[in-house]
Amino acid sequence: MPRVEKCRYQAAIFDLDGTLADSMRVWDNPCADWLISKGKIPGEGLNKKLAEMTITQAAEYVIEAYGITSEPSRILHEWQDAILLKYERDVMLKDGAAELLAHLADGGIKLAIATSTFPAACESVLARHGIRGYFSAIVYSDSVERNKTFPDIFLTCAEQLQTEPKHCVVFEDMYAALSGIRAAGMGAVAVYDNSGAATWERFKREADYAVVSLSECWRIIFNNT
């Protein structure tokens, strides 16, 4: 890979699921499967509704929408146990992710993660693939007031990296997060994932950069050919 001297940013903030990790399929049906186990019929478009929520918000949503009597903490525990096993055993990195992180780190670019998943899942997949040490900060959606459609999580990452927002770029696969990135005053890289195919063309047009694979970042983002 090329060197990073031409990078215009001082810090890079990465989403985890669908951006660094090929993990969106893990989230396709856990809530639906859990609802079925409770004798409930999952509504049409359930996964789409939950995609923009934190995991705590998702638990609160199913309680209200499906008349569940369990406490949110109990639901989260049951979901997380099933999902964590998949992160520990099956979830792989997206193509080019490890190489990109290594070269950014070698070039002195500060790195952070902004994710809606839960800490045990995030830490397990990063450790298993040997990339945990690249990140100076990991911020979880549940630790900030609002979801990724607002700037909170991205600004918290910038604060923890001690970098001005205008010098940060965010790698994200979810189009809905673009409003939060823009509100934070940061650059945006749209990263393709099958789960976001329906909004990909719009995301490509509105982001600063768009890549199908993280391996493309050097040519497109850092002006290398």
In brief, what are we looking at here?
With 225 residues, the protein is an alpha/beta fold. The protein is built from ten helices and eight strands.
Protein model, in words:
There is one protein chain. The protein has ten helices and eight strands. The mean pLDDT is 90. The protein is of the alpha/beta class. The strands form two sheets. The chain has a six-stranded parallel sheet with strand order 5-4-1-6-7-8, with helices on both faces. Helix 6 links the parallel strand 4 (110-115) and strand 5 (137-140). The longest helix is centred in the middle third of the chain and has 18 residues, at 72-89. Helix 3 (55-66) crosses helix 4 (72-89) and helix 4 runs parallel beside helix 6 (119-128).
Overall residue-averaged pLDDT value: 90
The low-confidence parts are: none
Approximate strand percentage: 5-15%
SSE ordering:
EEHHHHEHEHEHEHEHEH
**Share of helix among residues?**
40-55%
Distance between the termini: 11 Å
What general form does the structure show? Answer: globular
Going by helix content, strand content and strand pairing, the class is: alpha/beta
- Find the count of extended strands (DSSP E, 2+ residues): 8
Q: How is the main sheet built?
A: 6 strands, parallel
> Largest beta sheet: what is the strand line-up?
5-4-1-6-7-8
Count of individual helical segments: 10
Radius of gyration: 17 Å
List the helices and strands and how they pair.
Elements: E1 11-14, E2 21-22, H1 30-37, H2 46-51, H3 55-66, H4 72-89, E3 92-93, H5 97-106, E4 110-115, H6 119-128, E5 137-140, H7 152-161, E6 168-172, H8 178-184, E7 187-191, H9 200-206, E8 209-211, H10 217-220
Helix pairs in contact: 3-4, 4-6
